[in-house]
UniProtKB/TrEMBL annotation:
PANTHER family: 2,4-DIENOYL-COA REDUCTASE, 2,4-DIENOYL-COA REDUCTASE [(2E)-ENOYL-COA-PRODUCING]. The keyword Cell division does not apply. It comes from the Bacteria. InterPro entries: Aldolase_TIM, FAD/NAD-bd_sf, NADH:flavin_oxidoreductase, OxRdtase_FMN_N, TMADH/DMDH/HD_second_a-b. Residues 16-339 form the NADH:flavin oxidoreductase/NADH oxidase N-terminal domain. It comes from Kocuria marina subsp. indica. This is FAD-dependent oxidoreductase. Residues 510-603 form the TMADH/DMDH/HD second alpha/beta domain.
Length: 680
């Protein structure tokens, strides 16, 4: 860990280090890692333990688990479980790791009701009133009887007992994000009961009240009880939801030891940089704070210490909640305490972490490539082992992968020469950051540039490297990180055959590289998206914002299909539909001729004509420097890095750069060399 002993925490940030009593326990400071999923959960417990431990080591005063099912009637496919006593021993090491650094450990107990289909346990899901479960599963949740409610309370009490046995200091009742039974009961849309648990708000809030009272009784001063609550509205209410949420908060105000304020829509709570801004939930935290004497923790894509301190100073928050800031920089509090503010690795708001959690793979982070690799590759976000033999390393290409490779290799003690053909570093991130809402993605470059200033890296801008120069380079290792370019032949993820006449000069064809480099574009534009991530939708919106008439076409059933995993699909779909002239879903590109393209329905094969003057192909990508890619020096080990090896997400490029920096290799043997969990 590199530290500057002369730096110190600025005075206006020092209140962030005040201890905060939470019921019977005391948080050592105000940095609160709120519950967040990891994609690791019960299949990757060692990884989970190591990752949470590193956050405690980095100064987060409270470190919570993700949501944790407490009974088989809530059988989330991947999340943690505390179903019976056998689970206690599995979770205890997580608590011990957190306690080892003086932090408090929190657990988010949850019962997901009709939010889950119980595909594994095959037990009919539970709901206040019979209702099809969330999603497209052909499963209907059954209405709970009074006996079921009594059982639920017992299961919950047992889970709290077990959580305390594990050593947890804070036990959650999860009623945020509209996805658990207590909020399903609160919602008059989901709760149609006519007994004492339905009807009036005080009837609908009865279950939540009982769970809170039960929790206090069982905890009996041995752990604090936290309530995570979506303060903006109740689930699925078109009108009156805001007022009812506030009334419920007023009614429950003093029951928990801590209010953890979120929004009811997870997509809005975890909004990406395109749809959210720092501190965007302040209003709701204030509304809760005004109704309770208990401490309040709130979130809102905090990235800057100043905003965090401001919300404490102005009385909105007692504890600063963060999921993504703690993922991007598990040592953020330590860096603030040490006055190393410029070393904080700020979250960019890309939501790749949310995508990996949704896809049930260990958490991936664009900014922090060590996330999810703490145990299996033994990567630490702040420590790299010194190299046994110091080498001279040439990195060709100063985009995200090249910058990360240079940074890590230099940190290990190698002497790095970073050669970049352009007159500035950053590669394709410089172009991406022009897209609406992606300005913060520049942080990937900016943070690495700051780090490089303190490391032994020679930077050579305007250096065009060819095979000849490579062969003559006086170095011990070469990494080629020259990125990728967009294909011009129309081959993409769903459409494998090139459409007829693309590139035959019948109609101008542009790639995203050309559009973003400012190539003139006029007339009616068709954006063809067979990439499905952000580029197609973002380019369509960018061009529409310049007054062009834009059609958007994709062989997928929705706009920007992959962004369903990053919480952005709904928003992008809506914007593209509203701002583009036409949206053609489920259509591939059949052929191109002057002033028109033939679109082919992916199911029926039927063709339709779209008139346009230019087509923007957002399809596949290929490594940029094919000739360099084939350079293999006999004497100098040479490896492709990032997009130059395999074009993918920004996160994948940074990760591959990190791998290279650690091993001076990206070959398959090195990449495959990681430990596996006993039960993964
Ligand atoms: C990868 C990821 C997984 C999450 N999983 C959970 C979860 O299991 N339970 C929960 O209450 N919130 C979960 N959240 C929501 C966060 O706790 C938080 O409310 C939200 O991300 C906003 O905070 P932030 O802007 O600091 O990220 C998750 C967030 C992320 C980024
Ligand atoms: S993946 Fe993106 S949004 Fe998530 S923590 Fe990392 S930088 Fe932030």
């Amino acid at each position: 860990m590199r530290t500057d002993p002369t730096a110190e925490c600025p005075a206006d940030l020092q209140p962030l280090f005040d201890p905060v009593p939470i019921g019977p326990v005391i948080a050592p400071n105000r940095f609160y890692q709120v519950p967040h999923g990891t994609g690791m959960a019960r299949a990757h417990l060692k990884s989970l333990e190591r990752m949470r431990t590193i956050k405690a080591e980095g100064g987060w005063g409270v470190v919570c688990t993700e949501q944790c099912d407490f009974h088989p009637t809530s059988n989330h496919l991947r999340e943690l479980q505390l179903w019976d006593d056998t689970d206690v021993g599995k979770l205890r090491p997580v608590v011990e790791g957190i306690h080892a650094h003086g932090s408090l450990a929190g657990i988010e107990l949850s019962h997901n009701g009709s939010h889950v289909a119980n595909l594994d346990s095959r037990i009919p899901p539970l709901a206040p009133s019979s209702l099809p479960v969330r999603g497209v599963y052909p499963v209907t949740a059954r209405e709970m009887t009074r006996a079921d409610i009594a059982d639920l309370r017992q299961w919950h009490k047992s889970a709290i007992r077990r959580a305390i046995e594990c050593g947890f200091d804070i036990v959650y009742i999860y009623a945020g994000h509209g996805q658990t039974l207590p909020v399903h009961f609160l919602s008059p849309v989901m709760n149609q009961r006519t007994d004492e648990y339905g009807g009036s708000l005080s009837n609908r809030s009865r279950l939540l009240r009982e769970l809170l009272e039960d929790a206090r009784e069982v905890a009996d001063g041995r752990a604090a009880i936290a309530l995570r609550f979506g303060a903006d509205t109740l689930p699925h209410m078109q009108t009156g939801g805001q007022q009812e949420a506030m009334d419920a908060i007023t009614e429950l105000a003093e029951l928990p030891d801590l209010w953890d304020v979120t929004l009811t829509d997870f997509g809005k709570d975890g909004a990406s940089s395109r749809f959210g801004s720092e501190g965007h939930e302040e209003h709701w935290a204030r509304m809760v704070k005004a109704r309770t004497t208990k401490p309040v923790v709130g979130v809102g894509w905090f990235t800057s210490p100043e905003t965090m301190a401001a919300q404490v100073r102005n009385g909105t928050l007692d504890l600063v909640g963060a999921a993504r800031a703690s993922i991007a920089d598990p040592h953020l509090p330590r860096k603030i305490r040490e006055g190393a503010l410029s070393r904080i690795r700020p979250c960019i708001g890309c939501n790749i972490c949310i995508a990996s959690d949704a896809l049930a793979v260990p958490l991936t982070c664009t900014q922090n490539p060590t996330m999810g690799e703490e145990w299996r590759r033994q990567w630490h976000p702040e420590r790299t082992p010194p190299a046994d033999t110091k080498k001279r390393v040439l990195i060709v290409g100063g985009g995200p992968a090249g910058l990360e490779a240079s940074r890590v290799a230099a940190e290990r003690g190698h002497h790095v020469i970073l050669a970049e053909a352009q007159d500035r570093l950053g590669g394709h991130v410089n172009a991406l950051a022009q897209l609406p809402g992606l300005e913060t993605w520049r942080r990937v470059v900016d943070w690495r540039l700051r780090e490089l200033q303190t490391l032994p890296v020679e930077i050579a801008l305007g250096s065009v490297i060819d095979s000849h120069t490579l062969a003559q380079a006086d170095v011990d290792a070469i990494g080629i990180a020259t990125g990728a370019r967009w294909r011009r032949d129309g081959v993409g993820h769903l459409q494998r055959n090139p459409p007829a006449n693309v590139g035959a000069d019948r109609m101008p064809v542009l790639t995203p590289d050309q559009v973003l480099s400012g190539e003139p574009i006029s007339g009616r534009v068709l954006v063809y998206d067979d990439d499905h991530y952000f580029m197609g939708a973002n380019l369509a919106l960018l061009l529409a914002s310049k007054g062009l008439s834009v059609d958007y076409m994709t062989p997928a059933p929705v706009v920007a299909a992959y962004t369903q995993f990053t919480n952005e699909q709904q928003g992008l779909h809506q914007e593209v539909t509203e701002r583009c002239s036409s949206v053609h879903l489920l259509h591939g590109l059949a052929s191109v001729s002057a002033s028109r393209v033939q679109a082919r329905d992916v199911y029926t094969g039927q063709e339709a004509t779209i008139t346009c003057d230019v087509i923007v192909l957002v399809t596949g990508r290929i490594p940029a420097e094919a000739t360099l890619a084939h350079h293999v020096s006999e004497n100098t080990p040479t490896h492709l890095i990032g997009d130059a090896l395999s074009p993918g997400t920004l996160a994948a490029a940074v990760h591959n750069g990190h791998l290279y920096g650690r091993h001076l290799s990206t070959n398959t043997a090195v990449a495959s060399n990681y430990r596996r969990e006993p039960h993964a």
